[in-house]
Amino acid sequence: MDELFKNVITIFNEASKTADISTSIHTILKQPKNEIIVNFPVRMDSGEMKLFKGYRIQHNNILGPYKGGFRFHPQVNLDEVKGLAMLMTLKCSLVGLPFGGAKGGIKFTPKDHSQAELEKITRRFVHALGNNIGPNFDIPAPDMGTNAQTMNWMMDTFLNTSGSLDRQCLKGVVTGKSVKVGGTKGRAQATGYGAVMCIEEWAKQHNHDISQKTFIIQGFGNVGSWAAKRLDSLGAKVIAVNDCVGTLHMKDGIPIRQLSEYVQENGSLEGFMDQELLTREEFFAMKADVMIPAALENQIGKDEANAAQVTLIVEGANGPINNEGDKILTEKGIEIIPDVLANSGGVIVSYFEWLQNRSNDYWHEHHVLEKLHDKIIQAYHEVHDLSIELNISKRQAAYIKALKNIDEVYTERGIFP
């Protein structure tokens, strides 16, 4: 069993007991409703035919249509997307969205392919999925290795193969599209900004001045870079960033705007301002106030947790801390704002995009971000208050809150037949 799925199931089982979730509901939720695996051929630029394996896991839809990202990455596998799909179910429930949870992806390395090949792979995958996605059934979004352009291709393929005469009503089949083709302003920065909104609320509760705090960030993709930009605008000091090539450390603060432009052009931190990069191990042992892991899952285990010298960890990525690491960090008194809360900004703003598509409306960016703030801060306080009331971690509180919401819906609706 993939470690991410095992980690999620372990916490899910513990939270189900504490929340007193019925045995029937526990049985339903511990496995996804649908596990879709497709193998599809794509002709490469060279004329060679290659076979790709794609996944779509639809975990639960009691609250509404399945919702979750698509990732293009060589490590995509069945158990990984099963774990991520369950996290999406909990995340949507926690922040009060009328969505269920799903996740999907294709197992391959995007950087090994041309833009033309990426388009063909994306379109062929959507065609292979057929009616397994749809604006009222299952709504994909971008994730690791995918972006707004990927979503544009997915939407266009779905519209042109749906057979519907009213195709404009189908734009909401995916979210995270570029604004010109039906996306929403604020979506690109939503996950990173949402994580920082949680940090700001934490700082208020502890009477901290965020501009006097130091931050270290693992991963400088969409989530990490936008979180860094937001922190920079608040006057906070980001002193280290880690990516696949190493760790950039500047004790007086990294010039985030310059770094963002550099990484956009060069693909990594390597060579930025001729700085010598440190190791991954040095990153996790670095002393700072806050760490934001915003890369892959299972990045913080026993060794990283023992080395950690921070006060707060905010999970920008899904499942970045395994259960052993989580236990060690808790014993050390390091507070954690869990992924199902901290990185929920992306799906919250995806919901706003879906609403705009359904009504053929466009919202101003400030309106989107205000509504994002309202939703994520409400969820933050519900999790915080429950953690205090039950004397449990925020992760446990988030799972319990999400599970209770789902349990109540099942109780009121009943189970067919």
What does this structure look like?
The protein is of the alpha/beta class and 417 residues long. The chain has 2 domains: 3-8 and 32-181, Rossmann fold (3-Layer(aba) Sandwich), CATH 3.40.50.10860; 184-359 and 368-417, Rossmann fold (3-Layer(aba) Sandwich). Helix content is 46%, strand content 16%. The chain contains 15 helices and 11 strands. The strands form 2 sheets. Strands 8-7-6-9-10-11 form a 6-stranded mixed beta sheet. The protein has a 5-stranded mixed beta sheet with strand order 1-2-4-3-5. Strand 6 (214-218), helix 7 and strand 7 form a beta-alpha-beta unit. Helix 3 crosses helix 15 (394-413), helix 6 (190-205) packs across helix 13 and helix 14 (365-390) crosses helix 15 (394-413). The radius of gyration is 21 Å and the shape is globular. Residues 184-414 form the Glutamate/phenylalanine/leucine/valine/L-tryptophan dehydrogenase C-terminal domain.
